[in-house]
């Protein structure tokens, strides 16, 4: 008896696997999903197969492809997680891929979903594309080893994005991409690796049909990280450029200096050629040319003049090719006038000759790619400190759940750089820092755990050195008061961040039950202590570490997050706004309900994000306040309070009990 | 789908949690209720499946198997409220529970005691011997000394005493499914290595030959369908229907199964016996279980015979199923659609780095599909016996060589590295 096996090949197998799954009862989907995922995996390895899979995408939902798994609800999906899921080896990458196909079919109106409209889906996918440029523009690589290892997941993801780009067109992301680059850079982060990668990817768009404005923007960024000037462009290498500087007269040098200074000022990015120029000027030129090369404001210029010798020393030690971004930090540090604070100069000098512990040295060298560049760990650390002192709101937590520590570094950099300059050498040299909590000294070296081993290393040098210690101390303080019957942050925050933090504390959640209680009272209290119209005109002086409920683009609760209110003021359009620092360095997320923190255009300073006052309050769940600077809470209009309550209830509030 | 003549609409209780069996009952259109471990309750609730949580593990820990009869009163009452007319065991550990419930329904404690024959290898062998089946020499051992005595006596009889290579004997746990608790004794040192927890147990002489299992659907004491599965590499791979050499002996195997059914007085349900067939075609009984076999054998049957064995299991367990219904349900045993095989994959590493499925395998003419993904849990748990495989490779072809050959060749292949 002849039996024909595998009739019809892969296409038929896919069809059968899909139909079997489709026909199964909901409780039984689980038994047939795996086989469907296996066939989908095979199909996705080829472009044509991806297309065939896509044809089924409008029916994925009804067939139960996502039944019972984390991808069940498309409205709960996060664009930011897609990249990680697609790279994950195992079934996760397949389900994630199928989920994206479903999203494309929603965007193209081949399928509908009660909670995700076509425009929701498009918005989601635009963000996904902007976050996955490496898949859209695969990097050419000769490392066959690496390819083989990464191979299939990457291959499938690239096929997915090829289809996505076909369906949604590339232009739609060219502006998203450029916008993303601008959006990230306007916040002036200390770490620029990701933006640099995006810029390099965006360069490939120059060969595509993009509009003139986008093209110009791409070119500007492209130049900022490479050859800013004609002379640099004509040089074969940074080294050749450096040698060519010797032939220049004063005027020509000044021209080079202003061009680089201006580019850095405009973009926040430092070109390697800029480093060669500045190091050359540091040996051979006067204060004026250096002022130009740093693109300084008048305040910055006078501070450079005042501390010229120190700056020369700092450049010599810390500004090298791998640490080039610190040149921007240096310029900003001068403009902030930090060097005029008494403890800062000796603090920096101590750093230069610091005897750094072996393990810290290794971490610093590895994370900054500084091996074989002739740098020492001390150089890297000094450069890191300059960045932190120059860009206090550019500090990011990276891919670590350490928002509290990032918040602390930022606050100290602004208000107590001397203290920060105490902590850095303690950790780097002694492997320990200590803080006092309610009369008892806590040493980080005595504390177990902490995130040090798992700390994701894409962090600035100061965070790399300090965060493991800070995180352990913070956790220990919380542990000590966790059974006190109220939120531990009430006591921990003032002790951890410093006496700037007001002692009184309010929270929307009832401690222990996590129920929302007296929400209106909470809102009124915040107005009466923070809104100028209700708090008797008191101005906010020190940053306030507060807790917010982050929500997804659909307004669903995503998690708790720590941020800092920097200031509260009217913007140029007379909207009263809260300006805050978000340590995740991706401040302009979309929180749903039309609430989108902005990072520019509303009077924000570098690194700040902002929201209209009432929108901010709708996501707030905990804050500190000064009871001595409190107005009448009953004065807040009922309609205002009710509007905020509605926003809260209909977003994160759905996750909680309201009593 | 076939629907049963179930006029008074009593419910069938599925004892144990198994989605394919739930699906089978559902597709047969039979009213059913699941008796499963408490951790499955949430799933059942989500999909509105009738469910009674029963903590089998708790009873296993605190009571002996013989106590199940007494302990089953509460479960019986719960099931009675649900109008349960029949209990069907799905797993080794639920055989006695299903029997206890059925015994209470029929007000006949013997039904329960009968089930213990399948759950205690000592009782099982004695019953087989009494019924005239060919079995090895066996004894129940309480300690290492008794195992040694047995080992010596067997080798003395075989005139192997004192020789370098002695005849091996097997130690088996009384009541464990599959290969858990099975040890091969080749030397007295192997006996010393046995753990104290391994006693009491069954010791038996070694039998040679090809090993097969049968999946026998019995109704009213007669065989409705007999599937023969050939063990290609014991514990790792199997094929159904078997190679032609074994297929030729179907009649003889059927005879052995019939003898077994008579010896054990089996009326309804599914049995899964294992036999050795030696070079002269002599068939020896190894053991028999009254539950769904492991190793994906039911998937192989489904693939090659085009009927749902999970449904067959339920139908044959019910005395009220009519003859006509059964006749139209089962296909002809000799009309199979090729041969199907399954290869169980067990990681041999402690931590899984990645999955490696060679292209040659996927392009093999007999290759059907596999179920492997790199697991999220990279650490491989330590298991006794064969444990749960981390994946299965299925083969299917009308030429048995295209199935048998990879089942043999890929046993030693490391899919997880």
From TrEMBL, chain A:
This is Uncharacterized protein.
From TrEMBL, chain B:
This is ATP-grasp domain-containing protein. GO terms for molecular function: ATP binding; ligase activity; metal ion binding. PROSITE patterns: ATP_GRASP. Keywords: ATP-binding, Ligase, Nucleotide-binding. The keyword ATP-binding applies. InterPro entries: ATP-dep_AA_Ligase, ATP-grasp. It comes from the Bacteria. Residues 125-318 form the ATP-grasp domain.
């Amino acid at each position: 008896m002849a039996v024909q096996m595998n009739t019809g090949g892969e296409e038929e197998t896919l069809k059968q696997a899909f139909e079997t799954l489709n026909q199964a009862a909901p409780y039984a989907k689980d038994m047939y999903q795996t086989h469907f995922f296996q066939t989908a995996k095979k199909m996705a390895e080829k472009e044509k197969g991806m297309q065939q899979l896509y044809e089924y995408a409008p029916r994925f939902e009804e067939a139960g492809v996502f039944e019972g798994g984390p991808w069940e609800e498309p409205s709960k999906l996060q664009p930011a997680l897609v990249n990680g899921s697609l790279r994950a080896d195992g079934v996760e990458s397949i389900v994630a891929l199928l989920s994206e196909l479903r999203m494309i079919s929603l965007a193209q109106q081949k399928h509908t979903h009660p909670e995700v409209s076509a425009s929701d889906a498009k918005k989601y996918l635009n963000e996904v594309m902007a976050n996955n440029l490496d898949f859209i523009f695969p990097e050419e690589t000769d490392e066959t080893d690496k390819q083989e290892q990464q191979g299939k997941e990457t291959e499938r993801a690239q096929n997915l994005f090829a289809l996505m780009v076909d369906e949604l067109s590339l232009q739609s992301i060219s502006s998203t991409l450029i916008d993303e680059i601008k959006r990230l850079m306007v916040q002036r982060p200390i770490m620029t690796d990701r933006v640099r990668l995006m810029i390099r990817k965006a360069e490939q768009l120059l060969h595509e049909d993009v509009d003139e404005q986008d093209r110009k923007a791409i070119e500007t960024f492209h130049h900022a990280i490479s050859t800013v000037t004609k002379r640099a462009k004509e040089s074969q290498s940074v080294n050749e450029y450096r040698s060519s500087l010797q032939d220049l007269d004063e005027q020509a040098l000044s021209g080079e200096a202003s061009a680089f200074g201006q580019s850095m000022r405009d973009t926040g990015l430092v070109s390697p050629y800029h480093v060669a120029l500045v190091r050359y000027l540091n040996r051979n030129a006067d204060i004026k040319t250096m002022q130009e090369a740093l693109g300084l404001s008048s305040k910055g210029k006078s501070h450079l003049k005042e501390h010229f010798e120190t700056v020369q020393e700092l450049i010599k030690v810390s500004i090298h090719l791998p640490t080039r971004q610190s040149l921007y930090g240096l310029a900003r540090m001068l403009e902030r006038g930090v060097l005029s604070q008494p403890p800062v100069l000796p603090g920096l000098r101590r750093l230069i000759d610091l005897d750094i512990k072996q393990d810290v040295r290794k971490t610093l060298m590895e994370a900054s790619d500084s091996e074989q560049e002739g740098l020492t760990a001390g150089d890297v650390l000094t450069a890191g400190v300059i960045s932190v002192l120059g860009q206090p709101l550019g500090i990011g937590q990276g891919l670590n759940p350490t928002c509290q520590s990032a918040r602390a570094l930022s606050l100290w950099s602004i208000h107590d750089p001397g203290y920060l300059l105490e902590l850095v050498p303690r950790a780097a040299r002694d492997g320990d820092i200590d803080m006092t909590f309610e009369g008892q000294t806590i040493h980080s070296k005595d504390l177990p755990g902490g995130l040090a081993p798992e700390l994701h290393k894409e962090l600035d040098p100061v965070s790399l050195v300090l965060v493991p210690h800070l995180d352990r101390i913070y956790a220990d303080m919380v542990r000590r008061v966790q059974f006190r019957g109220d939120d531990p942050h009430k006591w921990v925050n003032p002790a951890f961040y410093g006496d700037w933090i007001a002692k009184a504390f309010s929270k929307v959640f009832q401690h222990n039950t996590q129920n929302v209680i007296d929400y209106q009272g909470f809102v009124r209290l915040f107005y009466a202590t923070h809104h100028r119209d209700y708090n008797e005109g008191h101005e906010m002086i020190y940053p306030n570490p507060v807790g917010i409920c982050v929500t997804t683009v659909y307004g669903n609760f995503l998690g708790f997050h720590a941020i800092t209110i920097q200031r509260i003021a009217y913007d140029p359009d007379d909207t009263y706004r809260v300006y805050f620092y978000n340590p995740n360095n991706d401040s302009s997320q979309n929180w749903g309900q039309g609430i989108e923190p902005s990072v520019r255009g509303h009077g924000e300073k570098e690194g700040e994000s902002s929201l209209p006052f009432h929108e901010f309050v709708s996501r707030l769940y905990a804050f500190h306040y000064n009871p001595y600077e409190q107005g009448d809470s009953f004065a807040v209009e009922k309609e205002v309070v009710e509007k905020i309550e509605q926003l809260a209830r209909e977003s994160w509030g759905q996750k909680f009990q309201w009593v | 789908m076939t629907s049963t003549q179930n006029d008074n609409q009593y419910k069938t209780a599925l004892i144990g949690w198994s989605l394919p069996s739930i699906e089978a009952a559902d597709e047969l259109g039979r009213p059913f209720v699941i008796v499963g471990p408490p951790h499955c309750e949430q799933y059942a609730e989500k999909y509105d499946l009738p469910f009674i949580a029963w903590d089998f593990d708790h009873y296993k820990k605190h009571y002996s198997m013989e106590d199940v009869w007494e302990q089953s009163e509460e479960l019986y009452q719960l099931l009675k409220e649900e109008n349960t007319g029949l209990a069907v065991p799905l797993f080794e550990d639920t055989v006695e529970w299903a029997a206890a419930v059925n015994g209470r329904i029929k007000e006949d404690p013997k039904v329960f005691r009968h089930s213990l024959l399948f759950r205690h290898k000592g009782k099982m062998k004695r019953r087989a011997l009494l019924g005239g089946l060919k079995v090895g020499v066996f004894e129940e051992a309480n300690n290492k000394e008794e195992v040694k005595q047995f080992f010596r006596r067997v080798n003395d009889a075989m005139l192997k005493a004192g020789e370098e290579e002695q005849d091996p004997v097997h130690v088996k746990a009384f009541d464990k499914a599959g290969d858990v608790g099975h040890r091969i004794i080749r030397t007295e040192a192997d006996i010393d290595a046995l753990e104290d927890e391994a006693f009491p147990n069954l010791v038996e002489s070694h039998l040679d030959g090809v090993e097969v299992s049968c999946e026998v659907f019995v109704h009213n004491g007669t065989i409705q369908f007999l599937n023969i599965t050939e063990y290609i590499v014991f514990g790792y791979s199997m094929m159904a229907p078997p190679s032609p050499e074994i297929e030729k002996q179907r009649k003889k195997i059927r005879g052995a199964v019939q003898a077994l059914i008579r010896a054990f007085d089996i009326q309804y349900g599914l049995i899964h016996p294992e036999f050795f067939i030696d070079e002269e075609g002599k068939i020896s009984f190894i053991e028999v279980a009254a539950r769904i076999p492991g190793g994906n054998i039911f998937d192989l049957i489904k693939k090659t015979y085009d009927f749902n064995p999970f449904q067959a299991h339920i139908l044959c367990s019910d005395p009220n199923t009519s003859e006509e219904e059964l006749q139209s349900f089962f296909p002809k045993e000799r009309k199979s659609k090729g041969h199907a095989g399954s290869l169980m994959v067990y990681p041999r590493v402690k931590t899984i780095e990645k999955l490696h499925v060679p292209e040659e395998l996927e392009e093999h003419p007999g290759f059907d599909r596999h179920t492997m993904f790199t697991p999220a849990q990279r650490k491989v748990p330590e298991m006794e016996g064969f444990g749960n495989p981390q994946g299965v490779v299925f083969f299917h072809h009308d030429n048995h060589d295209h199935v048998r050959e990879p089942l043999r060749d890929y046993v030693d292949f490391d899919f997880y590295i």
